[in-house]
Each structure stands twice: as C-alpha cells, then as structure tokens.
Amino acid sequence: MGGLRSTQHDCGGGVSHSLSFLLGALLPTVLLFFLASDRVDEQLSSISTFRFGNGSAAHQLTSHAASLPTDVGDGADEKEESFPGLAELLPRVAMDDGTVIITSVNEAFARPGSLLDLFRGSFRDGEGIAHLLNHTLIVAADPGALALCEAVHPHCYLLQVMAAGVSSANGFLTRSYLELVWSKLTFQHRVLQLGYNYLYTDLDVMWLRNPFRHISLYADMAISTDRFNGDAEDLTNAPNTGFYYVRSTNRTVEMLRRWRAARSRFRPKAHDQEVFEAIKGEFVGGELQIKLVFLDTALFDGFCEYHGEMDRVCTMHANCCLRLVTKLHDLRNVVADWKRYSSLTPPEKMSSKLRWTYPAKCAATMKIPA
C-alpha cells in the first residue's frame, strides 16, 4: 500500500554483454513499476518544495494550533496556510511507508461515551489492528475537543475552525458543519504537500479488520461508497468522503487544490462529498489522470447499503444516518455484535449465523426500508 521506496545504483562503464542483456530484460519490469507509482520522485519534490516552506522551524514550534478562516475554498486555497508544528508531528505518527490515518473531532464527539470512545475502542476490539491507533492523528476543531483528545490519545492537533457552533453536534449542512468538512480538506491538502499519504476516516466508522490489505497499490485515491455497483473503477459508483485513502504525489496535491477551489462553483451549502461527486470525472479523465478506485461495501460496509455478513468486513460506517444520538445507538449495536462474533472460536465463526443488528433507528432518520 503506497509508500514505495527505491534505491539508485551507479552502473558505470565496463558492463559485460551478458549483464547488459540481463538489464535489458529487466527494463520493462522496472519501467512498469515506476509508471505504476510516481510516489518516489514526487514525494522528494513535495518535501523539498513544501516541508520548509512555512518559514523557520522556530516559527512552526511556537504553537501546535492552526486557525482557519471560514472562507476556505473560495480563493484561500491559493495562499499558503500555516499549520504550526505539523511538519514535526507527522513523522512521529506516520507508518514506515509515510501513511497517516486522520480523523477529526469536535467537543461533542470527543466527550466520554461519545463517538471518540467508540472509534478508539473499535481498534482495540478489532482483529490485530490496535497498533494502528499509534498511526492515527486526531484533528480537533476546538480547544475543548483538543483537551478531551489529549486525555486519551497520544497524537492530537488543534485545527481551530473560526465558525460559530463548531463544538456542538452540528446538524447536516449547517454553517458550522460545512466549515468543519471543508477545513478537514484544507488540512489534508497540507499533509499531502508535506509528502505523506493519508487515510481519512470519519469518527463514526468502526474499524474491525485492517483496511490497508484491500487498498490497491496502484490507486492514487481509494474511496468508500454509499452504494457499490460491482466495478471498482466505474464513476457511477456513489462515493462517500467519510473514508478514503490518498497517495501523496504532485498530481494528488493538485487534485486536492482543485477540489477545494471547486467549492465556489457550487451552491453555498455544497459539502465536500457533493462537490467531489460532481467533479470526480475531471480528475480521472482530465490532465491529472488520477487512478480512482471505489471500495466494495461488502468489505467497507455501512448503513446505506447494509450487508449482514460479518466474516469479511473491515469497517462499518454509520452513513445514511442523521443525529448524533441515533448514530451512537446503532453503532453501540455494531460494537456489541462484533464482540459476540469475536468471542467465537474459528470453527464456530465458520458455522455461525450471527449477523449485524439492523440499524433501525438510523434507517428511520433516512426513511430507508428494511
């Protein structure tokens, strides 16, 4: 998954005929490798261009908080936002291949017993994924969320959003909700500029198994779906920006810039997912030639296209669900179901008829038939 490395060798003069023949035979394979992933050269370029572009290290370390204006996406993307301390924090969070898991939280979601507790608990209860919490960066939208995050998690970052009401359980498409979702995109853009891949996950996604095993090595971007039509490259799939992976290259840095800038082309209440759905074809078919892969809901499950099976699923997302209290109710059922399943022996799991509890309360908020 992402993060490909390469080493250069000095192949000076005096190469034998047989060695030349061997190198000639290997050349197509080497070319295929580098065509499949432009990560190495572009990451080096990104690091040299951006990692030191925010001024001195002393300036970056004066605070571990960044503030964003509420007009992000309508021209502000042409400016170089400052993210103090981020360049120093990311190496401590990233995996060996330079990948960081990112989620975002406000005070309402971070309170004890709320989504943050369920999210972190899912890693501990999952199959061999507890270590991935060490590579998860939780981005707090307000000081209250930061304090609650720091009480339970080692890697927290304050990205203070300057909009009223960001600390509460924001209703869908309210002004504070929109500023939260667009500010996370600004932050992710900076992560790519610094040369890191990221997997963004909403806090209402329960992690059960390692999702990286099912993300294509060749994908520039792999995104979850509300509904999956069976073809991972078909643009008619319905993407969900609550869970997606982006590999850091010059092309994906530009993709994020264009995605943010496109906000101004749409209605004032357009959120990041709506804009991405409308312009994803521009990224794939345009000059950027982004390799976009849609993730199968049988593996990356959710309440929109609900599957009952428990033997393969990597994540469960409380999508197609309104109101925090409703999400919490149905996700607690998910957690209880998973614990029952996990307590079985391997032979019992193979013969088990256990299925996920249907998310009835969430379905009722969307009027989804059972």
UniProtKB/TrEMBL annotation:
Q: Which parts pass through the membrane?
A: 15-36
Nucleotide-diphospho-sugar transferase domain location? 131-331
What InterPro entries is this protein classified in? At1g28695/At4g15970-like, Nucl-diP-sugar_transferase
Keyword check for Cell wall biogenesis/degradation, yes or no: no
Pfam families annotated for this entry?
Nucleotid_trans
Sorted UniProt keywords: Membrane, Transmembrane, Transmembrane helix
State the protein's name. Answer: Nucleotide-diphospho-sugar transferase domain-containing protein
What is the source species?
Answer: Aegilops tauschii subsp. strangulata
